[in-house]
Design goal:
Elements: E1 4-11, E2 14-21, H1 22-32, H2 44-55, E3 60-67, E4 73-76, E5 82-83, H3 89-101, E6 110-111, E7 114-115, H4 116-125, H5 129-139, H6 142-151, H7 163-168, E8 179-180, H8 182-193, H9 200-211, E9 230-237, E10 240-248, E11 254-262, H10 267-282
Antiparallel strand pairs: 1-2, 3-4, 3-11, 5-8, 6-7, 9-10, 10-11
Helix pairs in contact: 2-10, 3-5, 4-5
């Protein structure tokens, strides 16, 4: 007889203990894993924790996270496209700054009478849609942004419309236009951080603006320890809640994170819980804050 492990079975309102063969236990664990997961073996416990979070949630959730120092990664539905909404504004900023780096533009340029520097700040700090579309139009529109990303090897992310067009169109949260997979968004963040798309000075400028983000205080930042440095950008549509960016760990490592959630309920709470699990998982502290003060979720 093989080795046995103990599991639990729900029976009415009771929970009774049962024995499960090791082979069956392993098979069940395998089936429970998300499709196309690409997590590092060292983060298997974190992947399982996030899988439980996603499985027990009414929203459709995609998650990816990458330690920019060690390369360790975790992914849940990492290859599934989700609407980017306003998280695309990070890509808009990166393209503009890349042209600043090459002397084609300046942050002191005026666009429709407004300084590019001011438009950039409004876009990233306050998620100003009009400022975004002014910058995108000056850069050549959505097609120019999409082509620049593709030419620089950022795949799994597509830009089809400006913000005004996106908001005017009939809402379809499963439309692949203007979408990104979690892993593609993390790849974009990685390339930005490693100064592959923009120079270090421009990267630092971009991260400084993302650190001032005033939206989504009830998302990625809500459950992290006080004082944890976070540079992020939110995205919101009816039925969709996103948050992407960087979390700096106590050891100085930065984690690039993308969390997308559509449909269902309690999406900001889900993002906050996932971000905290990522924080704990990457520091090997596999504790789970199941409860948090309601005040943590009062932001917008």
């Amino acid at each position: 007889m093989g080795v046995w492990r103990f599991g639990f079975e729900l029976s009415g309102s009771r929970v009774r203990q049962m024995r499960v063969p090791t082979v069956l236990f392993a098979l069940l664990a395998f089936v429970a894993q998300p499709a196309a997961a690409a997590s590092s073996p060292s983060l298997a416990s974190l992947e399982q924790q996030l899988s439980y979070l996603v499985a027990g949630n009414s929203a459709d959730v995609g998650i990816a996270a990458l330690d920019l120092t060690t390369g360790e990664t975790v992914s849940i539905k990492g290859n599934t496209p989700f609407p980017m909404a306003s998280t695309v504004k990070v890509a808009v900023a990166a393209l503009y700054l890349s042209q600043v780096d090459h002397g084609r533009r300046s942050l002191d340029d005026t666009i429709s009478g407004q300084p590019a520097r001011s438009l950039m700040a409004r876009m990233l700090i306050h998620s100003d849609n009009r400022a975004t579309d002014m910058l995108m139009r000056d850069l050549g529109g959505p097609t120019a942004l999409h082509n620049w990303l593709q030419q620089n090897g950022v795949t799994g992310l597509r830009v089809d419309r400006n913000i005004a067009q996106l908001l005017a169109d009939k809402r379809d949260l499963w439309d692949h236009r203007d979408s990104s997979t979690p892993t593609a968004m993390v790849d974009l963040l990685k390339r930005i951080y490693r100064a592959e798309l923009i120079k270090p000075q421009s990267r630092n400028y971009l991260l400084d603006l993302m650190a001032q983000c005033q939206t989504g205080k009830n998302r990625m930042k809500a459950l992290l320890p006080d004082g944890t440095p976070v540079e992020h950008k939110t995205g919101t549509l009816t039925g969709l809640t996103d948050d992407i960016g960087f979390i700096t760990m106590p050891d100085g490592h930065r984690i690039a994170v993308a969390i997308f959630a559509r449909g269902g309920a309690d999406r900001p709470r889900t993002i906050a819980a996932a971000a905290r699990a990522i924080y704990d998982g990457f520091t090997r502290v596999l504790t789970w804050p199941f409860a948090a003060p309601a005040s943590a979720f009062s932001g917008h």
